[in-house]
Amino acid sequence: MSGNEMKYIDEAFRDNWVAPLGPNVDAFEQDIAELVGVKGAVAVSSGTAAIHLALSLLDVQKNDVVFCSSLTFVATANPILYQGGEPVFIDSEPETWNMSPEALEEAFKDAERTGKMPKAALIVNLYGQSAKMDELSAICREYGVPIIEDAAESLGAAYKGKASGTFGEFGIYSFNGNKIITTSGGGMLVSNNTEALGRARFLATQAKDPAPHYQHSQLGYNYRLSNILAGIGRSQLEVLASRVNQRRAVFKTYKRELAHFPGISFMPELEDTFSNRWLTALTIDEGLAGLSPVDLLNLLEQENIEARPVWKPLHLQPLFQNYKYFPHGRTESVSERLFKRGICLPSGSNMTLYDQMRVIAIVKKALSSKVRCNNLENIDELSG
Ligand SMILES: *Cc1c(COP(=O)(O)O)cnc(C)c1O
Question: Which domains does the chain have, with CATH numbers?
Answer without folding.
Answer: 5-240 (3.40.640.10), 242-383 (3.90.1150.10)
